[in-house]
Amino acid sequence: MPDDAIDPDEEARRRAGLALANGDPTGWFEPLYAAAEAGEAVLPWYRGEPSPELAAWVAGRPGNGRRALVVGCGMADDAELLAAAGYETSAFDVSPSAIKAVLNRFPDTVVSYRTADLLTPPAEFHYAFDLVVEIMTVQSMPKDVHDPAIASVSGFVAPGGTLVVGAVAEESIDLDTWEGPPWPLSKAEVESFARDGVTVTSLDRVRDDSRWWAEFSR
């Protein structure tokens, strides 16, 4: 069992530091998910339920078979929510152990799960999805890779499609004392999802202004 004295956020930062020292901005996820599966660590972001903002957004927006993609699906509560709402849902995570845990957790799932890296995404994802959901994945990587990660996310949106983005607001934290991960997104970074034909539909601060919730369309 994980040591209750170990702070999950501090442990995530320790693992991220090791990966970054090796020049691998996403390399800390697999060891952390593998340790969590073995009962030796805790996922600091896991809540066991979908994003409340996404749940509210999806309510009244049935999928009707439209294709959806969840970026960095983690333990897959958001992906399963979309599937239940009638979206033909795909989801990916960089960690094979995360995908294994998801398939154990949802053995009868209709979601198509796979291992993939946001920084080098599958070519078939390009312009392929009617709905793309990016919640707190870009911010899990350091600032110097935010722009290519954001470009990848925007590139998944099909013509006529929608992108929703949720992230901790950089403006709500003290940057002088903050140590990532996560590396929250500034307003300018959230706005920068609008590229290559993608435009901003709405941009709001939620949860007492601590987070961004944004919608885009192509």
Automatic annotation (TrEMBL):
Keyword Methyltransferase listed: yes
UniProt xrefs under Pfam families: Methyltransf_25
Top-rank taxon: Bacteria
Biological process annotations from GO: methylation
GO MF, one example: methyltransferase activity
Keywords: Methyltransferase, Transferase
Methyltransferase domain sequence ranges: 69-161
Name of the protein: Methyltransferase domain-containing protein
